Amino acid sequence: RWAFTSFDCANWHPLTWLSHMLDVRVFGPLPIGPHVMNVVYHATAAALLFVLLQRLTGAIWPAFFTAVLFAVHPLRVESVAWAAERKDVLSACFWMLTLLAYLRHVRRPGPGRLALAVVSFALGLMAKPMLVTLPLILLLLDWWPLGRTAGTARPGARVVRLLLEKVPFLLLSTLSAAITYQAQVFGGAVVPLTSLPIVRRLTNAAIALLIYLSKIVWPAALSMYYARPRGGIGVPAGAGAVLLLILVTVAALLWRRRRPYLLAGWVWYLIALLPVLGIVQVGYQPWADRYTYLPSIGAILAAVWLAADAARSRRLTRTVLVGVGVTAALVFSVATQRYLSVWRDGESLFRQALSAGGDTYMMRFCLAGELLQVARIDEAVVEFTRGLAINPLYPDGHLGMAVALETQGNAAKAMQHYRRALELQPGRAETHVLLGSLLERTGAPAGAEEHFRQALRLQPEHPLAREGVCRILAGAGASFQAPVFPACDDAQSWSLSLDKLIPDTYVQKSI
Q: Is pLDDT at 229 greater than 90 in this prediction?
């Protein structure tokens, strides 16, 4: 019930939540379980892609190498190695199953077969709403390779028939988009137009399309987070990107009769990326490697089919074609293996993001949090300082800096950063608790009690805030009021150490 009603993490993906719950039930809290299952889901999606393309086109080797290059490409690392990105690999399995069920319906039409495709699509949307563009992909496949747009019937009648067939899919997409938007608004993830005007969003979308394409061809300098260019992307760069996209589209249209796979692959790439191009901006990242998971299939398909076509036209042997495919797969595999080493721990991941993705305050704070977790306090303070120099208005940065300074023994400066964090985000119970605990330890119980009580006003069930008030009341010899503090019946029974919980609980959640 929680999985289906939760908007946690500013998303609605109940099937993904259920898969995580199943991991814990089967593997316990060990991290190997989610990682193994991500690999299993990814391998399944790649295998289903091969089956799908082979059945769609009848071409075994191009289908095989498209699936292999998709599977081993370095851009897949983020979606597979990041355990929480389960939604990518899980939704991809249902994307493939939906297309396979749809193909079965096309070959032998029937309401039951179409219903199976619709159910599979619904499950995919409940794994990740990025699948909302799949109805358009179905229309694209109707054109190539299925050839359903050609025939003796009138073109208008054929189009209407194909559109009516997609109505159940379109309704599910609309519903999923509406729920997802509400979840993003609820989670505070939607960037308002006042912060990022529509012109900048469109410019960023055009640049993102070219950057994704370049990374598919040459996957260098990958990062788990990319900085938005300071000052934005200039109008000339945006106009140049739009012009280049138009030229590619025109070329694909001109070749649509001789090489229809080029237009099909290009349109697949464009359509699948639509939800993540930032027209409705969620978060401040301009682009992300994980967004290429399904869209890259279109680009890879076009390249592989073009290579196979070129080999046939030049009468090259199948051995040559297979050799080129194997070489490309090996090159991608080596690059993937090297990039995987970056994901071995948080510090290496965030340092790579700083070097390849740009010097952002978010990555500075993430790196500082990692250093704080392993008690490298002085280094953490340096990174917090650098992050706050970039963005002094980020409350979590001040909160992390306060914890680091407090751990160093610099209570006065720590208190300044706690208070600054509260100025920037007054409605956060954790900050009140941390400041209250510091005031308590530095001999200011009255101020500590005030902050503990403020935390309880914001979050009545906060255990550390209750304990703090209990300690202070017990130290003052006050009597407890059960209706107000039901957890404080026996003040002497509280033995929780805030000193131990600060780095493990609050910094982990905040940073």
A: no
